[in-house]
Amino acid sequence: MATDSGESGSSAANIKLQFAPFSSALEAGFWHQLTQKKLDDYRLDESPKCIKGYYYNGDPVGLPTRLTLEFSAFDVDGLTPARCCPAIGTLYNTNTLDAFKTTDKRALLEKEAKEIWDAIQSGAVLKDPSILCKFILLTFADLKKYHFYYWFCFPALCFSEGIKILQQPCVLEQIFSAKQVGYLKISVLSTGINIWK
């Protein structure tokens, strides 16, 4: 715990935890699959669909943290690429540009945020931490002109006063033995998050 007596202690107490915002990275394969799904399966169905993306937590400093959607996004039970973390989202595909523009984005955001908050309160996030990384994708695919419109949203909890850091961050190996870190890796891998492969 940080104290006010030392210079480093007081500087740690004044630091607030910050989160790197996601950037969206929708690959061409995603749009191809959406086109196929729209033509073959969804047609005029505008009901929400579950999709899966992933992010990588090891990019060099300065690069944005990307949440990637590719051709496999519609296979929610599929494998997540090595060293990546899964993110489950909701696709709202509209049939018209007007419907896309007039969709109540705030209501979508509040609905997803409530689901995340309910999962925190129920303890579900302890069993599946990927619940904290949900996203919303609102789309309109103009298949005649091959124009795709989208709005990406990453719901996040906001703390009015921020989260104070009690002590300076450090790497796991400074606190835990190699054996303990090994057990942590095994525990994380058993949840399906394969960030160490």
Structure in words:
By secondary structure, this protein is α/β, with parallel strands linked by helices. It has seven helices and six strands. The chain has a six-stranded mixed β-sheet with strand order 1-3-2-4-5-6, with helices on both faces. It starts with 6 loop residues before the first helix and ends in a 7-residue tail after the last helix. The N terminus is likely disordered.
Keywords:
7 helices, alpha/beta, six-stranded mixed sheet, single chain, disordered N terminus
List the helices and strands and how they pair.
Layout: H1 7-14, E1 22-26, H2 28-42, E2 49-56, E3 65-69, E4 84-94, H3 97-102, H4 105-122, H5 124-127, E5 135-142, E6 147-153, H6 172-175, H7 178-190
Parallel strand pairs: 1-3, 4-5
Antiparallel strand pairs: 2-3, 2-4, 5-6
